[in-house]
Amino acid sequence: MATARLLLLTVAAAVAGSCFCSGQEAKPPPYCGSVRTAVEAHNIIGWKTFTADCAKYIADYMTGDRYTRDADVVINEAIAYAESLKLSGSGKEIWVFDVDETALSTLPYQANRGYGVQPYDQASFIQYVTEGSAPALQGTLRLYQRLLQLGIKPVFLTDRTEDQRTVTTNNLLSQGYCSWEKLLLKPVELQTSTQAFKIEERKKLVDAGYVIVGNIGDQWTDILGSPEGCRTFKYPNPMYYVA
Ligand SMILES: [Mg+2]
């Protein structure tokens, strides 16, 4: 009898234990948030992916409200800065926007790639871009609309390639970016880095008499290198790094 009671207690404890365990979600390691901060601050450069143990952290960050709130802080600051400017009236003041993860979001694609935890795959990324369905990042759209009201002309400068001009144009238009001064895409055969390409294009803009009053991008390579613009804004993106 005593043996039977002991057996029953043991089984009950095991069942209770398994119920308790199945209800628990593994917490991401605490350093994931610190790594993200270091990535955004450009203290970590040239990284390929977040480690797999931070997959849940990145997914929660991108799909929860934190990503949007972080972006809104950047956008609100950019709008306040733009509103403080005394424009010349020449019509030559421009604002440079990157496209992917700045004007448009590839989050629907990234969701299937572990939000950057899986290594970059060019073929599937290009396929997503070609669909032309990337949604606008609403904060950036808000900045864009305010700049138009102020008389600052938008220029899109992207490492998307020239053969993606039509799909990029249509995608931007469909998402509410209704006009722009220029849409600058990378020549298909160009071998230089994204950063070198963007610096060269900004030089051409300045040489043509434009004043780059602001420049916003999700990569440091969007905003580093003279002429970078009178003021730069780093849009958050912990999913991938572009050299
Ligand atoms: Mg980008």
CATH superfamily: HAD superfamily/HAD-like
What is the fold-level CATH name, i.e. the topology? Answer: Rossmann fold
Order of helices and strands: HHHHEHHHEHEHEHE
Largest sheet: 5 strands, parallel
Strand content: 5-15%
Distance between the termini: 72 Å
Q: Mean of the pLDDT scores?
A: 91
Strand order of the main beta sheet, please? 3-2-1-4-5
Helices and strands, with pairings:
Layout: H1 2-22, H2 31-40, H3 55-63, H4 66-84, E1 93-97, H5 107-110, H6 122-131, H7 138-150, E2 153-161, H8 165-174, E3 182-186, H9 194-207, E4 211-217, H10 220-223, E5 232-234
Parallel strand pairs: 1-2, 1-4, 2-3, 4-5
Helix pairs in contact: 4-7
Protein name: Acid phosphatase
GO molecular function: acid phosphatase activity; nutrient reservoir activity
InterPro entries: Acid_phosphat_B-like, Acid_phosphatase_pln, APS1/VSP, HAD-like_sf, HAD_sf
Describe the protein in words.
With 243 residues, the protein is α/β, with parallel strands linked by helices. It has one domain: Rossmann fold (3-Layer(aba) Sandwich). Helices cover 47% and strands 12% of the residues. It is built from ten helices and five strands. Strands 3-2-1-4-5 form a five-stranded parallel sheet, sandwiched between helices. Helix 4 packs parallel to helix 7. The longest helix is centred in the first third of the chain and has 21 residues, at 2-22. The N and C termini lie far apart (72 Å). Mean pLDDT is 91; it is low at 1-22. The structure holds magnesium ion (MG). The site of magnesium ion has 7 residues, from loops. Magnesium ion binds next to loops. Keywords: Glycoprotein, Signal, Storage protein. Residues 1-17 form the signal peptide. Pfam families: Acid_phosphat_B.
